[in-house]
Amino acid sequence: MKKEEKIKVGISIGDLNGIGTEVILKTFEDNRMLELCTPIIFGSTKILSFQKKQFNIQANFHGIPTADKAQHGKINVVNISKDPITIEYGKSSEEAGKFAIKSFTEATKALKEDMIDVLVTAPINKHNVQSEDFSFPGHTDYLGQELEGDSLMLMVNDTLRVGLLTDHVAVKDVSKSITPELIKKKVQVVHNTLKQDFGIMKPKIAVLGINPHVGDNGVIGKEDDEVLKPTLEKIKNEGKLVFGPYAADSFFASSNYKNFDAILAAYHDQGLIPFKTLSFGQGVNFTAGLNKIRTSPDHGTAYEIAGKNKADHNSFKEAVFTGIQIFRNRSLYQEIAKNPLKKQPSKI
User: Fold this and answer.
1) Cα torsion 103, 104, 105, 106: sign
2) pLDDT at residue 340, rounded to an integer
């Protein structure tokens, strides 16, 4: 990437009956965003124009047939459908689900073909998007199929990064899903992403226990003693700075998380509840481990406030910022890897 080129940020529009379009519009109402990147929204100029009037947002759109026709300095919109669509704020509809997935799959195709550099996804309703053509628990699983690498959900903000050994897995299936192979793979993904995407050359990773109190020596479950501890010991012997397992209930309350570059939680709520509590609406979901970059805000469709002009766009804006920064970090890392002896400019 040449220095003068702006990073092309592709955006899937999400569920039209939720707050996705509102947070997108509010983010790019600030013209300074166009100095930072070139946004390419996969949606409809007609829908966006209707919603910008409703929310009294000042933003002008430039309709384009395909992402490679995007113009710098403008909010570009790839019109993915000419069919009329009914917007019913706060309601789940099959129509909105189909549009959301068409936007997402078209944006993913553009990402694979290098028409965009980064993908930022607005929230979808995981129920109304299900069909014969799309049968995935969410964005991450589809991206894991379409892109190269091993995907991992990594929640990030300025001071905290939380990944998951298991993500959209029922609680009853968590313990049997956590195998030595899975642990090794997830630790490796986190280790790699901290180096290439966040510029941390010797990352320290903490791992949380599977059971309460890390099983209390087998009294509250044997998975920690029989699976997690011996696997982490093997990973340590390979030279990685991995620590734990730690009892999850006290780990965040004691501020121990501040001593690590990333934390791996055993399952979804164990990691995301403390993350969202500590991130105060500024969190970002980054799909680590893939050959392309995707981020999203850390909230859902928020049907309860959709259409009321109450949505906070800060998490979506942070998702754009994070995607851009990761793209820059990864580009620099790859350049250094190609030319390991090339002297880098000193940071002041």
Assistant:
1) positive
2) 67
| The pLDDT value given to residue 141 | 86
Collect all residues with Cβ–Cβ distance below 8 Å to 326 and sequence separation of at least 6.
118, 197, 198, 286, 293, 295
Q: 203: closest CA among 255, 150, 249, 154?
A: 154
Residue type at 203 in one-letter notation: P
Distances (CA, A) of 263 to 40, 41, 267, 285: 33, 33, 12, 14
AA letter at 322? T
253 vs 250, 274, 279, CA distance in Å? 5, 9, 14
Distance CA 73, CA 38 (A): 7
pLDDT of residue 339: 73
Length of the chain, in residues: 348
Question: What is the distance between the alpha carbons of residues 283 and 65, in angstroms, rounded to a whole number?
Answer: 33
- Cα separation, 29 vs 23, in Å, equals 10
Given a contact cutoff of 8 angstroms between Cβ atoms, the answer to whether 233 and 131 are in contact is no
Please tell me the number of Cα atoms within 13 Å of 158 on its side-chain side.
Answer: 5
Name every residue whose Cβ is closer than 8 Å to that of residue 86 and which is 6 or more positions away in sequence.
93, 95
* pLDDT at residue 132, rounded to an integer: 82
**Residue ranges for the chain with pLDDT beneath 50:** 1-3, 346-348
Angstrom distance (rounded) from CA 250 to CA 160: 16
pTM confidence score: 0.91
Residues 305/123, Cβ–Cβ less than 8 Å: no
Report which secondary-structure segment, H or E, holds 284: strand 284-290
Please report the pLDDT score of residue 2 as a whole number. 45
Q: What is the pLDDT of residue 326?
A: 97
CA distance 219 to 212: 10
Report d(CA 231, CA 228) in Å as an integer: 5
What does the angle CA 69 – CA 73 – CA 78 come to, to the nearest 5 degrees?
A: 35
